[in-house]
From TrEMBL:
Region (Leucine repeat II (LRII)): 286-318
Protein name: Uncharacterized protein
PANTHER family: OSJNBA0084A10.13 PROTEIN-RELATED
Motif annotated as VHIID, chain positions: 236-240
Annotated segments matching region SAW: 424-499
Region (VHIID): 205-270
Keywords: Transcription, Transcription regulation
InterPro entries the UniProt entry points to: TF_GRAS
Length: 504
């Protein structure tokens, strides 16, 4: 909840996309996102019977194995604990505790990075700080000390709850993930999140974007940058890697409708992961139908193409590139789900970037979740994940009422889902793999991109909106042509603009 000395959150107002050459407008029509979302929830009854597009597709991706893996039966790298117990599927935590205690005396010294590690017992200190307990538990698990892990987990359980304060809520979801890792059930429990209905997730997402500026400000900056670039073009083609429900585009459609001389012909190619079943592109196509209706409402000539593939499998011929169109490629906060070179030898992240470079877009809009919890070594990844999610839960504690049901749902089915994947899944099953924005910068440069300067007017407008309309601890900064957003000094999201360089 808000501190009594802080200003209350303000109601979102109608704002419009920058379209004039001066770039002086200060409005962005972000309420179009709320109208678009409300229309979905009110008119599409089947959303209550459908799983969330994002969760379901990622869960499917987490179950896939490459053809090479199938041929040679080469399992993903496992941590020391799973070497001994990867086949154990326990029915309950108490049985797991008894089982491990009965075996602990007969296990040899565990092997980490090729060297034997002596089993060591660390005195468990009685304390009530769940974050410190989590850190101790993660260290014990990384060292293969199952007895201490179990004892610490019991202590965490006693002092954590999905209804407690921010640290206790976070500890609850980490405890679930730790237990799943001990049991070897992480991938199954992660896939189980796909049973949550799309309607529930979207309702909770509405609460999230109301309380937190990250997605709104990313959309404002990206859309205004695109609109300024396309100010005089008659044809604009946007290729969106990771379109999901298309929430970024109602704002720009509404803004383009007001352009002097009329809007350009707008074409959006929406790319997202295939869904399970016989119609892998169904939900990506549904996004297109919603956007078509929205474009008709504002008399914007509009075409949509749906592609349901993993990013690295998209081909140029899939995209129907027209050299007369201004081409923009957009990927905001979804590249983290593309597997990296620690899992797949052909470096799919670099392959996707090189493919985008071959398209020769007039602009590549790249937004990244700035995360440090993608380390191969479990203890490092666990510690960084605790720090990251501490920030997220603290942010929600300060900006949303304690008993808000949508906040509880978002924490359970979004934060809790991601924690489960980061802590309890390995190999291809771990699809949450964020990297620091500086590492993405190196990847982009290596792929042949040149970074564009940020528009200072748009950046200052974003910063002013955050200072005026949101909690005082949200921050907007600029670093080497990256727009950074965060909470209490910790950078959570970064966005930048690129174009292909002259190299072949």
């Amino acid at each position: 909840m808000y501190n009594k000395h802080d200003p209350p959150p303000r109601t979102q107002t109608s704002e419009t996309v920058v379209l004039s050459s001066s770039g002086s407008e200060k409005v962005d029509y972000f309420d179009g996102v709320f109208c678009y979302l409300n229309k979905m929830l009110m008119e599409e009854d089947d959303l209550t019977n459908k799983p969330c597009m994002f969760i379901d597709s990622l869960a499917l991706q987490a179950t896939e194995r490459s053809f090479y893996d199938v041929l040679v039966y080469n399992p993903p790298e496992t941590e020391p604990l799973e070497i001994y117990d990867s086949a154990v599927l326990c029915d309950d935590f108490n049985r797991l505790s008894i089982q491990y205690k009965s075996r602990s005396s007969s296990l040899p010294g565990l092997i980490t990075d090729g060297k034997p590690v002596k089993k060591r017992r660390k005195k468990v200190v009685e304390m009530v700080d769940p974050t410190e307990l989590l850190m101790q538990c993660g260290e014990a698990m990384a060292n293969g000390d199952t007895t201490e892990t179990v004892q610490l987990l019991k202590m965490i359980r006693k002092d954590s709850s999905p209804l407690g304060n921010s640290s206790r809520r976070m500890a609850h979801y980490f405890a679930n993930a730790i237990e799943a890792r001990l049991c070897g059930t992480g991938p199954e429990l992660y896939r189980a999140f796909s049973s949550t209905s799309a309607a529930q997730i979207l309702k909770s997402y509405k609460a999230y974007i109301t309380a937190c500026p990250f997605h709104r400000m990313s959309n404002i900056f990206a859309n205004k940058s695109i609109a300024k670039l396309a100010n005089t073009t008659n044809k604009l083609h946007i290729i969106d890697f990771g379109i999901l429900y298309g929430f970024q585009w109602p704002c720009i459609i509404q803004g383009l409708s007001l352009r002097p001389g009329g809007p350009p012909k707008l074409r959006i190619t929406g790319i997202d992961l295939p869904q399970p079943g016989l119609r892998p592109s169904q939900r990506v196509e549904e996004t297109g139908r919603r956007l078509i209706k929205y474009a008709k409402r504002f008399n914007v000539p509009f075409e949509y193409r749906a592609i349901a593939k993993t990013w690295e499998n998209v081909k140029i011929e899939d995209l129907d590139i027209d050299p007369e169109e201004m081409l923009v490629v957009n990927s905001v906060y979804r590249m983290r789900n593309v597997l990296d070179e620690t899992v797949v030898e052909n470096r799919p992240r670099d392959s996707v970037l090189k493919f985008i470079r071959k398209l020769k877009p007039d602009m590549f809009v790249h937004g990244v979740l700035n995360g440090t919890y993608n380390a191969t070594y479990f203890h490092t990844r666990f510690r960084q994940a605790v720090l990251h999610f501490t920030t997220l839960f603290d942010m929600f504690e300060a900006t949303v009422e304690h008993d808000d049901e949508d906040r509880k749902l978002f924490e359970r089915d979004v934060f809790g889902r991601d924690i489960m994947n980061v802590v309890a899944c390995e190999g291809r099953s771990r699809v949450e793999r964020p990297e620091m924005y500086r590492k993405w910068e190196m990847r982009n440069l290596k792929a042949g991109f040149v970074q564009l300067e940020l528009d200072s007017d748009i950046l200052n407008e974003v910063r002013a909106k955050v200072e005026r309309q949101y909690h005082k601890d949200f921050v907007v900064h600029e670093d080497n042509n990256w727009m950074l957003q965060g909470w209490k000094g910790r950078v959570l999201y970064a966005l930048s603009l690129w174009k292909p360089g002259n190299c072949s």
